[in-house]
Design brief:
Blueprint lengths: L7 H27 L5 H9 L18 H13 L6 H16 L2 H13 L4 E4 L15 E5 L2 E12 L6 E9 L6 E9 L5 E5 L10 E11 L4 E2 L5 H37 L11 H29 L3 H30 L11 H6 L2 H4 L4 H12 L7
Parallel strand pairs: 1-4, 2-4
Antiparallel strand pairs: 2-3, 3-7, 4-5, 5-8, 6-7
């Protein structure tokens, strides 16, 4: 089977998830966001059908698949207008890291719940002064007997209010060199000293963003995920799926906007024929479709490499996929709104809010400029500019 052609199983998964998404749609998610709620019904239905944990090991209640399958789920929900942002965080980042590096006890404690949707986990890496530079993370973890003490701040952390715990990226001091190196800790929501403040976002989304404070948070040794000497490997085991899933989120949103624009262009009549009959309308929509399809191909490549265990190859492809999908999404949304004219800005058609939402993938989880840095250094071998 060619790597560029989806399997029968993947096509069947797409069809099934699309049917679930169509039962909810854009209006459901918009209503939940307006009311300040969470998409609990959709989350529960997706979990019941086995979609949330499709990438997690079967022995812990998951589907035994990989990021390839999970990205299909998110893309199709997004195409229906109801993407679940916490899928990027809970099963993709946290579930993957725990499945790959967690202790048996951590796997038993977390994976069944992450797989069936009964438990969720947030992910905390970004800091106010570090931005995309994970090497400047200042959240530190120091030993105190058998315990760890975490101190620091995080910002733009999604869904902390609904998460049972947050997987926090801190840094420990290497006893031999004195260098700080990244490590991952499971911090329960009610841990003493673990505070959160909601960030007032212009973005209309059900998932809230938070600033976190860790004030001498004491954790047992069992809170450390994986080996404290393999921090970067463990960190990127979570960051590569995050980039692939962000691509899926963006491609789904772009497809959703494009479908609305195409439907409008087929039916809206001004000069004796539908406006889609004019090349000035039709060609930009065709171009948006091509760009989304190209981004999806790179996303599929990245997912395949990651699921095959090629972390280096997946890192390059995941960054490219995230970049391509974000650009394609922004252009698709912009063209969709433009195609509808004034109607593109009305609440009835539901496209205007995507103008803001579509930019998220350009900014998070890493800016497009940092991806260009990565490709210029790692792929092209050009000297670093910083």
């Amino acid at each position: 089977m060619s790597s560029t052609i989806e399997s029968v199983e993947h096509k069947a998964l797409r069809t099934a998830v699309a049917a679930l998404g169509q039962r909810y749609g854009r209006e459901y998610l918009a209503r939940v966001a307006r009311e300040g709620g969470h998409p609990d019904e959709l989350w529960a239905d997706a979990a019941k059908l086995g979609y949330l944990g499709v990438n997690l090991p079967e022995e812990y209640g998951g589907g035994g698949g990989g990021i390839a399958e999970l990205s299909i789920v998110l893309e199709e929900l997004g195409t229906a207008g109801c993407p679940l942002l916490m899928m990027v965080v809970s099963p993709a980042i946290c579930g993957t890291v725990i499945a790959r590096f967690g202790t048996d006890a951590q796997k038993r404690a977390w994976l069944p719940g992450l797989a069936d949707g009964s438990r969720t986990m947030a992910f905390g890496i970004t800091e106010p002064d570090a931005g995309s530079n994970s090497h400047r993370i200042t959240t530190t973890a120091r030993r105190d007997g058998d315990d760890w003490i975490l101190t620091g701040r995080k910002v733009f952390i999604s869904g902390v209010d609904i998460a049972d715990a947050t997987l926090i990226v801190g840094r420990t001091e290497d006893a031999r060199t004195g260098n700080l190196k990244p490590c991952l800790f499971i911090v329960p929501r009610d841990a003493p000293g673990f505070g959160r403040t909601v960030i007032d976002m212009e973005l209309a989304a059900a998932e809230k963003q938070f600033e976190l404070t860790l004030d001498e948070v004491r954790l047992p040794s069992a809170a450390l995920v994986g080996d404290e000497d393999a921090g970067l490997l463990q960190l990127f085991a979570g960051l590569n799926p995050e980039r692939i899933m962000t691509a899926a989120f963006a491609i789904g949103m772009g497809r959703h906007a494009l479908a609305k624009a195409v439907d409008y262009a087929k039916t809206r009549q001004v000069w004796k024929q539908p406006i889609g009959g004019h090349q000035a309308v039709a060609h930009p929509l065709a171009q948006a479709h091509i760009e989304l399809e190209l981004a999806r191909l790179m996303m599929q490549k990245a997912a395949r490499l990651y699921d095959a265990g090629d972390d280096m190859g997946a890192g390059e492809a995941a960054n490219m996929a995230k970049y391509a999908a974000a650009e394609a999404c922004v252009r698709a949304v912009d063209q969709a709104v433009h195609t509808l004219g004034g109607n593109g800005l009305t609440r009835e058609y539901g496209l205007a809010s995507l103008i803001t939402a579509s930019r998220v993938a350009r900014i998070a989880p890493v800016s497009r400029e940092m991806i260009l840095n990565f490709i210029s250094h790692q792929t092209l071998g050009l000297p670093k500019s910083y």
